[in-house]
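CORE FACILITY INTAKE
Project code: CF-77B
Contact: R.S. (postdoc)
Sample description: multi-component assembly, two entities in total
Requested service: structural model of the whole complex
Turnaround: standard
Below are the sequence entries exactly as provided by the requester. Do not edit them.
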Amino acid sequence: MAARRAWVWGVGASAFLLAALLCGTAIGPVSLGFGSIVEAFASHIPLLGFKSHLTGTESAILWQLRLPRVVLAALVGAMLSAAGATYQGVFRNPLADPYLLGVASGAGLGATLAIVLGSSSTSDLLPVAAFAGGALAVAITFILGTSAGSSRGSAAFVLAGVTVTLFFTALQTFVQQQHASSLQTVYSWILGRLDTAGWHDVLLLLPYAGASLVALLLHRRLLDVLALGEDEAASLGIRVARVRLVLVAAATLGTAAAVAVSGLIGFLGVIVPHTVRLLAGSSYRRVVPLSILVGAGFLVFADLIARTAMSPAELPIGVVTAFFGAPFFAFVLRTRMIAS
Amino acid sequence: MFRRTLMAVLGAALVLVGPGLGRPAATPHRIVSLSPTATEDLFAIGAGKQVIAVDNQSDYPKRAPRTSLSGFTPNAEAVIGYHPDLVVIEYDPNHLVDALAKAKIKVVVQPSAHSLADAYSQIGTLGKLTGHTTEAATLVAHMKKRIADLVKAAPRPATQLSVYDEISPDFYSASSRSFIGQVLGLFGLRNIADPADDGSGFPKLSEEYIVGSNPDLIVLEDIRCCGQTIAGVSSRPGWNRITAVKRRAIVLIDDSLASRWGPRVVDFVKALSLALGAVEK
């Protein structure tokens, strides 16, 4: 019974992602026509004999602008949602999000420094600086948390994360105030950016997100054991500190890479895993893979809204995820509570 | 006898000094400008000698007395420390106007101009305030004539040309509602940002919309802030399809020129006029 239900949820989540990818590719500020898009795709499959009827410009819009953006949104959505689910499991804190350990503030400082100090090569430097800043912030959090936690409790990590976040945010604000002319660039990065996405960004993120997602998927059973509590997990033969390090390192690596290419996209890491939990149950064996599928689909849909709601103007993606994500989550929460 | 002489001397002195005594109240000679545009205006109308301090963004003209004062986050005490008799600002963050009023210092707020008429009227106001009415009128007349000549000299193609004016690399753009957009409008260009404008004058466009709109001319105003170059823009994915990129009809406008509405608007108009000449060929 449980196995069959898991299968149903898997199919449902995959269908949701597929629908998102289809809509995301088919709809945009420039209307390309659904038939023409199907033809354009079919023309890349040999022996079918289809020919694309898109003009050069339309072709460029489809293959070089729209498609990388859809793929990047799916990757970032999957990464942030899986990382959120993992953090919630490791720290046994339902409000934990991928930015809990300071990755966002560290990446923010790195990005701001790159924007302020960078010259014409800013666009190449920015993701590297953001990634380095994010990784550095989490490393400091981990050192602080380990040295402070004689009881090895996860609360020490959460507090260390808050401390590091406040400190890095203060540094970032200071640098930003010293260079007022860069304010706009910094803010548009902070609000999240899928708007300038290209295949370049996808290739940058793919190895990190891929490795991170595989690691999280392989360790999802251990999350269920950790959820019982640290002492219980230890009594079951789990080396809690080591498992925690591996899971947090994997989630952080992927998150830092996602933040580096797409800025700060909020709410996803909290809303998606909880929606999955409310619908399909709280076992991490389901929560992690379903969060990956649903998170990917959700961010593709959110980006579709960002691109088309005010077309040809755009909304910042962070605004869309919050505006639609929060009420959607409230709706799921409410219907579930009524149902039970 | 001595008393009468003394009275006469004093009287003469009073007559001589009289206009001078009235002068400080009428014409300020310790001006602080926290607006880069106002700084340019003041120097262009010959009031530069009366300016004792300008903000850290006022980088033109070079001889302006640049200080660490900030127009974005102004500190009232730091401004008052200069003992100014007139302070010109662009906008009023941190309740600067109230603070200066308490110190009995005259403040003029000259916000971003929405049109060339606004820009001219601000120059006129500064002329009146600083005792350079004639120079201000001459400057405005000169600007009007130069701009009219440059617009006339630019080619007017049979089909209307379209323009994309980029103010940041994430595709914020100046529409016809903005000051810069109005200047572009002088040349009869169709601004592709107009359908996206929500009233701000600076809508954020979709990249595929920009490529799909295929503008004939691209104006880049994000050179200094964001390191954009003609080569960089040309190599953006998909942008090689845009007419402006194919013909290299890309105008680079220094950020400081594009974000101000002072006398150097003429330079901006000239750059556009030259670029449009190139588009025609």
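Facility notes:
- Chain A has a mean pLDDT of 86.
- DSSP finds 14 helices and no strands in chain A.
Invoice: internal transfer
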